[in-house]
Amino acid sequence: MMVDLGAFSEEKFDAKKWINAACQTRHPQDPVEKHLADLEMKLQIMSEEIAVSLEEQSTAALHRVPRTGRDVIRLRDDAISIRNSVSGILLKLKKAEGSSAESIAALAKVDTVKQRMEAAYETLQDAAGLTQLSASVEDVFASGDLPRAAETLANMRHCLSAVGEVAEFANVRKQLEVLEDRLEGMVQPRLYDALSNRTVDAVQNLRRILIRIGRFKSLELHYTKVHLKPIKQLWGDFDSRQRANKLASEKHDGERLPNIIDSSSSLSAYSFSSWLPSFYDEVLLYLEQEWKWCMTAFPDDYRMLVPKLVIETMATLSASFVSRINLATGDVVPETRALAKGILDILSGDMSKGTKIQTKHLEALIELHNMTSAFARNIQHLFLESDLQVLLDTLKAVYSPYESYKQRYGKMERAILSAEIAAIDLRGAVARGVGAQGIELSETVRRMEESIPQVIVLLEAAVERCISFTGGSEADELILALDDIMLQYISVLQETLKSLRAVCGVDIISDGVGQKKEMGSDRKDGIHNSRKVDAVSDEEEWSIVQGALQILTVADCLTSRSSVFEASLRATLARINTSLSLSVFGSNADQNQSHVASDGGNEELSMAGRASLDVAALRLIDVPEKSKRLFNLLDQSKDPRFHALPLSSQRVAAFADAVNELVYDVLISKVRQRLSEVSRLPIWSSVEETSAFPLPSFSVYPQSYVTSVGEYLLTLPQQLDPLAEGISSSEANTEEAQFFATEWMFKVAEGATALYMEQLRGIQYITDRGAQQLSADIEYLSNVLSALSMPIPQFLSTYHSCLSTPRDQLRDLLKSDAANQLDFPTAQLVCKIRRVTLDQ
User: What is the top-level taxon of the source organism (predicted)?
Assistant: First the structure.
């Protein structure tokens, strides 16, 4: 039986568990006592063996301790000895370092002297070579070997740079410049012929000669000179066709009978806009051919040479191009076509004052610009391998004829919109006779309402023109122009609104005492130059009310349309911001990375930067100040609180307030007229007649002034319903329409109540009979207000309570508990006019 002693070393050893496990390993036939006795014996034997082994190992360890101590002492002595040796070595190294530094310094001086001597030797050799070259250069030129002559001049240049500014060789330096000019003069005619005949080998040889003497600019100059000529011939083709067309027209006119007038028989002038696409196509084809040829003839320079040709071409044709564009824009309008003038002439004032820029002028300019944009995209695709800066310069040159127009874009757009706004029929209303005022009012309001979408369409068209022509680079000028034009239009609306006040009969002639109150309150001071109710029929009265209510739709339409347009304008500015940021910053990033680009290393970045170029980016890259102003505006447009048309937004709100004021004045006009003399009615001071006979008492009926006001207020909802239905159908919001009608009903009812209470305050004295009558009037008006779901003001309820109470009981009423429901200052006023003295 084997005994495992490993369990005894465990931290959580359990003796009982170990004994039980040992018992389970016995043979079933062995008795437990015998198995436990054997186990005990084995454990005892093993413990004795362990004790003996431990004793032997302890004895051996005690014998090894002195030997180990001696070894430690020996190692310590060895370490001290090694440390002393290392210190000596370090001391020797320091001494060696000092002497080595002196040796190295001496060697450096020797090396410097050696280098100077070698340089002096080389300089002497160059000087000797320069003298020899200077003496033999004429023989080289006489041989006619141009490559050898170029090599000789290059060596002379090298020798001169090595010799430096030495007085003895000053003449040689001047001689070299003369010789280089002479060699360039010998190369030029051959280069001209080689370029004209497209001889690749000759062109390459002559290029190497020019590069060897540092005259590569001469190659650029002659390449441009040779290839500019056919393009100028293409450009001059337009004038030739115009002259031919003019001769044909004169011949045609001469063949006509003198007594016959036929406007269509005269041939029209040849159109620049119809000719320009063909010119661009021919130039593009020519450039494509040159690009392919230059790839073979100038494999290292074609990416720069052909774009340089385009730049020089546009510089040469720029003045003529601008002039032709100017005449082409004027050709679309008969007035300017007859005078052979265009947009620039109008802007410069070189026209009669009646001549203005029209939309057709600008549309013709944009059409020409679109043709140029298509050509620029083709150029960009053709020159995609060129350096970014070269590509930018080329595209800017292509667009350069339009720059003078773009700089004046804001002025042009302002003039066009101003003329279009002035052409809208917004004649002010004219006061007419009885029966025609409602028709005049309705017609004027109709013109006002119809003009709003027309103006918005004009403004939206201006935004589209700005994007089409400038790519959004003139967005800041456009915003200013749109704001000014909206102010101009709203000013016309306000003037028209003032004319409507006269038609509606609510003009006010100020007496210098008071000022107008805000809408919703009465006017205390001023003389109302109002219509006389008796002179106007009820039908005409309600037609004027209906016409006035329709003005609310004008204000609502202007507010909503201008708000939607502003939101659309902000979205447009956001799109411009995105496109310009990609173009400008993408191009700059590409430009900054171009010097790092290797074969395909930054190809993806380069392609992305070039693909994002547009007309706006080309203008903004080189004008940081304008770019900064524009991007500040575009960044501000991201704020939801930003008003693209700040002044117009304020003026729209002011116009809406003026409309609300006018409508309120019209609606309250009849009430004001009926209540104007209430405080001075004689019935308030009348005394009941005495009679010798007892007479029955009759109920007091409300007077005509209050019944007229009440009937007017009760019928007013019927007048507001059509307007509410119109708003509901246009906005698909029935609840808002009902709220709109209810709000106006409350405004008029509140105004009528305020007017009535003001008149009641003006009563100086009232008798018992007058108190009964006024109590009936107040009760009737209170019933009307209740029918309109309006709360009864405490002033009226107090007046009614105090007037309906007999005079001798009024003092008791104010002392009773019911007085808590009354307005005490109002009750005091009633007591005053009823001549009731309150006990102090």
Answer: Eukaryota
Look up residue 428 and give its DSSP letter: P
pTM: 0.70
d(CA 187, CA 419): 62
Strand partners, 527: 509
* The token pair that represents 678 in the structure block: 């209430």
Write down the pLDDT at residue 743.
86
CB 408 within 8 A of CB 513: no
Counting every residue written for the chain, the total comes to 840
Residues 6+ apart with CB under 8 A from 720: 549, 741, 744, 745
Residue 451 is predicted with a pLDDT of 92
**What pLDDT does 515 receive?**
35
**Do the Cβ atoms of 459 and 565 come closer than 8 Å?**
yes
The half-sphere exposure of 702 on its side-chain side, counting CA atoms within 13 A, is: 20
Q: Pick from 470, 465, 413, 477: which is nearest to 618 by CA? A: 470
DSSP-assigned letter for residue 507: E
What pLDDT, on a 0 to 100 scale, did the predictor assign at position 428? 66
From CA 446, how far away is CA 436, in angstroms rounded?
15
Sequence-separated (6 or more) residues with CB below 8 Å from residue 193:
199, 202
Query: What CA–CA distance (Å, rounded) separates 632 from 624?
Result: 12
527-531-534 Cα angle (round to 5): 125
Task: Answer whether 671's CB lies under 8 Å from 748's CB.
Answer: yes
Q: What is the pLDDT of residue 514?
A: 31
340 contact partners, CB below 8 Å, separation of at least 6: 327, 330
Query: CA gyration radius for the chain?
Result: 54
Which DSSP symbol is given to 429? P
Q: Nearest to residue 461, comparing CAs of 371, 535, 366, 531?
A: 366
| CB-based contact 587:617 (threshold 8 Å) | yes
What three-state secondary structure class fits 695?
Answer: coil
Residue spans of the chain under pLDDT 50: 124-126, 128, 167, 169, 257-268, 509-535, 589-609, 611-612, 691, 693, 695-698, 731-732, 840
Q: Which structure tokens are listed for 266?
A: 């005269």
* 837 in Cβ contact with 814 (< 8 Å): no
CA distance 245 to 566: 49
User: So what's the pLDDT on residue 176?
Assistant: 61
Q: How far apart are CA 580 and CA 635, in angstroms?
A: 12
Structure tokens at 539: 């039908």
Q: Please choose, from the candidates 508, 346, 518, the residue with its C-alpha nearest in 3D space to the C-alpha of residue 416.
A: 346
The C-alpha atoms of residue 677 and residue 528 are separated, in whole angstroms, by 13
SS (H, E, C) 704-746: HHHHHHHHHHHHHHHHHHHHHHHHHHHHCCHHHHHHHHHHHHH
Note the pLDDT of residue 113.
73
Q: Centre a 10 Å sphere on the Cβ of residue 557 and count the other Cβ atoms it contains.
A: 18
- How many whole angstroms from its chain centre is CA 136? 70
β-bridge partners, 530? 506
Which pLDDT score is estimated for 413? 92
CA distance 451 to 457: 10
- Among left, alpha and beta (phi > 0; psi -120 to 50; other), residue 266 is beta
Tell how strand 506-509 and strand 527-530 pair up. antiparallel
| First-to-last C-alpha distance (Å) of the chain | 129
From the number of C-beta atoms within 10 Å of its C-beta (0-12, 13-18, 19+), residue 417 rates as buried
- pLDDT, residue 516, reads 42
Coil vs helix vs strand at 59: helix
On whether the CB atoms of residues 774 and 803 are closer than 8 A, the answer is yes
Q: How many alpha carbons fall within 13 Å on the CB side of residue 156?
A: 29
